[in-house]
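Students often ask why we bother encoding 3D structure as a string. The short answer is that it lets us treat folding as translation between two languages. Here is a chain of 645 residues written in the first language.
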Amino acid sequence: MSKLTDQQEGRQVLFMGNEAIARGALEAGISVASGYPGTPSSEIIESLAKVAKERNLYVEWSTNEKVALEVAAAASFAQLRSLCVMKQNGVNVASDFLLHLAGSGTRGGMVLVTCDDPGALSSVNEGESRHFSRMVEIPLLEPGDFQEAKDMTKWAFELSETIRSLVVIRSVTRMSHASGNVALGKLPGTEHQAEFKYDGFVLDPMEGLVISAPVAYKHNQQQEKLKKVRELFEDSPFNTYAGPEKPELLLITCSACTLYSREAIQLLGLKDRVGLLKMGTTWPLPPKLIKKYLSLTDKILIIEEVLPFLEENIKIIAAEQAKEIGAKTFYGKNSGDIPMSGELNPDFVVSALAKILGIGYQDMSKEYEDKAKLLNFAKVPAREQTFCPGCPHRASFWSIHNALQMDNRKGFVCGDIGCYTMALGTTGFRTLKTVHSMGSGTGLASGFGKLGQFGLDQPVLAVSGDSTFYHAVIPALINAVHHKSNITLVVLDNSGTAMTGFQSHPGLQVNAMGEPMPEVDIAGICRSLGARVEIRDPFNLNETQETLNQLMADKEGAKVLILRQKCALSPERKAKKYFKVRVEETRCLGENCGCNRLCTRVLRCPGLFWDKDKKTAVIDEVICAGCGVCSYLCPTNAIIREEAA
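And here it is in the second language, the structure alphabet:
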């Protein structure tokens, strides 16, 4: 039995935040869970998929976040409890349906978990998902610790069914990926009956049509639901206060910043001077509760990540209640006491508290600081991002870069989101020139490819991963084919959603629960759209480069090159080598070669390094993945590849 399905009520279990959320969903009795993989959210669906058969769940990795939300909504409409999971970028993808779902309402309890990434630790942005709750008028909850992550998730389903609305839970990286003790609750039974009722009175929320019209009526219903939510939030156990009756300063916080704030108050010894109001219900805010605590003092510090969402909403309540509670001085992001971007930590809170209260605080002793300077940590060499040894993307971008150089028309590549985004840098030979949202590489290329009438004669390429292809590239490719846009789309097919942990997608013969499923062929899709399609192995550099040059020379609309090779870390290929690679040291001329160490200076695979003593390139047999790509590069044929045993 998994600890996620442990039946011992009250037992303390060490859970990652995402596991605690998954356990809360199980304790709520969900039947369906859907999502699209994206760090820091992926472990929620992965955890549920592992216990799907044991708990009679249906769990899927959907094609994209919008579809994931629609799949979960279907379960809710059929009176089942459902969970939908995504990272902050995904809420943008799902937002079209999200707006309509807020209007139509739900039936069975439905919760959307969005995991934000302050500091963009594993993202290309640190977008704020909280604003969607206010924009589409649905409740927002933010757990402040790991126990709350479980308990709040369970309660969110009850809240959803009370108001017949989707409820949003927002986590952040340090909540999702850190771990803490969680007391288990009771797991319910696993038998649930689905039925979609649709033949009742048209406006009956449980048996009528499920639509967001008529707008005037439905929008008024949303407003009434929010009024009820405000009343429920006034007495929520997820809003807590600790500190003196009349604090010198009131600190208001939420989410993982709760942990930072508690630590900062303790470090400075301010328990008798600073009151800590932890908000778990952050939209809509309970006005009576906020008024009560704002009345305690004239100074308020608000700690949150990333944008001043909580701060601005509290200020609105303060302005509305100004006659009764008086003028207040607010400290936070807008005052400059807390950074407006990036991830927070206890040091930021300590600095803000010390500044506001006039406390002299030294975060390290002079002795420790002197020792640190002596060790000169600043001179530790930086380690740049790089593709793994044997990564097919290194080979792909080598060929793309060289093909563009041979074409010599200043061609360029529109990038996309995935491991291959690193091709902005030296590991991909600085090949990518644009990177935006998933699928935008092909969409931008489609636009660039129609600029010939304005004199643009540069070859236009786009790259996409296989999971990204299904997620968002297909509509852009359809657009390019239909409008005869002169582009070449290179699909880097490494057989899985590699960047986030090899989650399944429609191009594989298995689903999230490990069940056999039909593969949806990328080449077949592209050909059915009318695009010219070629398939190559990126490890064959000569053939790949030749094909790319042919496709760029073909100006008849959209072309697709599928470079198909499994990720070096994939379960199928891990520890399996295609070739045994070695360097014949007597042939390696190194710095005296016309290539000037092309293999270690430019290709820079971690499995190949320059031995300064021997003055030759050397294969690291432990790290080398045996792809054999480096053997194509050596002009003296010093790098030998042999069939692996």
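Translate back mentally: The first helix runs from residue 17 to 28. Keep this in mind for the problem set.
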